[in-house]
């Protein structure tokens, strides 16, 4: 009787397809005590008699959220191994969903990358290949250090938000108001370890006299690249940024696109299009939430304190203001 495909290494961890469950003699010989089923199906309960069984009902499609199940799957696998038995992880073909779940477990246990985890699995089961969507989820899981509580992780919440935007775009609808993520409202919880650019500018409307309403800091700008050169598009006519709380009244109206007004003086400062918009550099930005460079001014702000506590200092007194003849310092 052929043996099961054991993941290379010290662990009694096995991977296979649905038909593996019918190889009763191999299961017994391998000491399998726990079975993790990663697929959507109506199970024949007789197949699981004598096993601890956990089911994760997901399809093998790119937009399926398997990431949310990683912590529970890891816990189940670890419980089986701690009990001294073997653990079988299977899906329909033993190729994509099961491989993704095993990769996630190896990443958390050993601190390895997705590539390293998959290479270890392929030593004994070369056909394993997570689909593109699952692979991106593994990369995200690795980037946030494989947390046990993934639901409250800011990066995971942003990823869910992007999925909502993609769904809304596919349906040609604006996202539901309660699902819009206003990034400045999450600033405190994400202040540590952020990958956003450091705060170096304040973008604000500048009337005369020079007192204005702060619209955004560079923390919330979204970089994109010019289509022809691939270089950062510093010469573009718009700044693209995340949704911010001062835009709430407009963005929650359920419109696909519209204008953004300064909340202080109601001047037109930009526009938005949930389905995306084309920048002057030729790149297509989704969603397109932008401030027109010709309608705002950049004000340098002081850097963060050396303590790294994220305390923002008042802006410097030097303000660069666009004029008809060029620039003047105020």
TrEMBL record:
<dbReference type="InterPro" id="IPR000387">
    <property type="entry name" value="Tyr_Pase_dom"/>
</dbReference>
<dbReference type="InterPro" id="IPR016130">
    <property type="entry name" value="Tyr_Pase_AS"/>
</dbReference>
<dbReference type="InterPro" id="IPR016278">
    <property type="entry name" value="DUSP12"/>
</dbReference>
<keyword id="KW-0904">Protein phosphatase</keyword>
<comment type="similarity">
    <text>Belongs to the protein-tyrosine phosphatase family. Non-receptor class dual specificity subfamily.</text>
</comment>
<dbReference type="GO" id="GO:0004725">
    <property type="term" value="F:protein tyrosine phosphatase activity"/>
</dbReference>
<dbReference type="InterPro" id="IPR000340">
    <property type="entry name" value="Dual-sp_phosphatase_cat-dom"/>
</dbReference>
<protein>
    <recommendedName>
        <fullName>protein-tyrosine-phosphatase</fullName>
        <ecNumber>3.1.3.48</ecNumber>
    </recommendedName>
</protein>
<dbReference type="InterPro" id="IPR029021">
    <property type="entry name" value="Prot-tyrosine_phosphatase-like"/>
</dbReference>
<dbReference type="InterPro" id="IPR020422">
    <property type="entry name" value="TYR_PHOSPHATASE_DUAL_dom"/>
</dbReference>
<feature type="domain" description="Tyrosine-protein phosphatase">
    <location>
        <begin position="5"/>
        <end position="147"/>
    </location>
</feature>
<keyword id="KW-0378">Hydrolase</keyword>
<dbReference type="GO" id="GO:0005634">
    <property type="term" value="C:nucleus"/>
</dbReference>
<feature type="domain" description="Tyrosine specific protein phosphatases">
    <location>
        <begin position="67"/>
        <end position="126"/>
    </location>
</feature>
<dbReference type="Pfam" id="PF00782">
    <property type="entry name" value="DSPc"/>
</dbReference>
<feature type="active site" description="Phosphocysteine intermediate">
    <location>
        <position position="91"/>
    </location>
</feature>
<dbReference type="GO" id="GO:0008138">
    <property type="term" value="F:protein tyrosine/serine/threonine phosphatase activity"/>
</dbReference>
């Amino acid at each position: 009787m052929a043996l099961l495909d054991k993941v290379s290494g010290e662990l009694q961890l096995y991977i296979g397809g649905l038909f593996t469950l019918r190889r009763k003699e191999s299961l017994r010989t391998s000491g399998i005590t726990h079975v993790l089923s990663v697929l959507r199906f109506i199970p024949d309960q007789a197949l699981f008699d004598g096993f601890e069984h956990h089911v994760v009902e997901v399809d093998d499609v790119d937009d399926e959220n398997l990431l949310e199940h990683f912590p529970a799957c890891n816990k189940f696998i670890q419980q089986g191994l701690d009990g001294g038995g073997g653990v079988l992880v299977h899906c329909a073909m033993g190729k994509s969903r099961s491989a993704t779940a095993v990769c996630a477990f190896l990443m958390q246990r050993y601190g390895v990358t997705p590539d390293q985890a998959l290479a270890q699995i392929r030593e004994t089961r070369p056909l394993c290949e997570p689909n593109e969507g699952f692979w991106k989820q593994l990369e995200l899981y690795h980037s946030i250090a494989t947390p046990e509580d993934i639901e409250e992780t800011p990066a995971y919440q942003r990823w869910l938000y992007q999925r909502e935007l993609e769904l809304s775009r596919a349906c040609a609808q604006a996202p539901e108001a309660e699902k819009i993520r206003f990034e400045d409202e999450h600033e405190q919880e994400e202040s540590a370890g952020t990958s956003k650019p450091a705060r170096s500018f304040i973008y604000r409307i500048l009337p005369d006299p020079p007192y204005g309403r702060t619209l955004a800091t560079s923390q919330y700008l979204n970089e994109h690249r010019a289509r022809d050169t691939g270089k950062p598009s510093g010469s573009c006519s718009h700044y693209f940024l995340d949704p911010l709380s001062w835009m709430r009244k407009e963005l929650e109206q359920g419109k696909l696109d519209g204008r953004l007004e300064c909340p202080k003086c109601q001047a037109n400062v930009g526009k938005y299009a949930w389905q995306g918009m084309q920048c002057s550099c030729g790149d297509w930005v989704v969603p397109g939430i932008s401030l027109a460079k010709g309608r705002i001014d950049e004000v340098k702000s002081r850097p963060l304190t050396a303590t790294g506590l994220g305390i923002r200092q008042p802006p410097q007194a030097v303000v660069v203001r666009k004029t008809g003849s060029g620039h003047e310092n105020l």
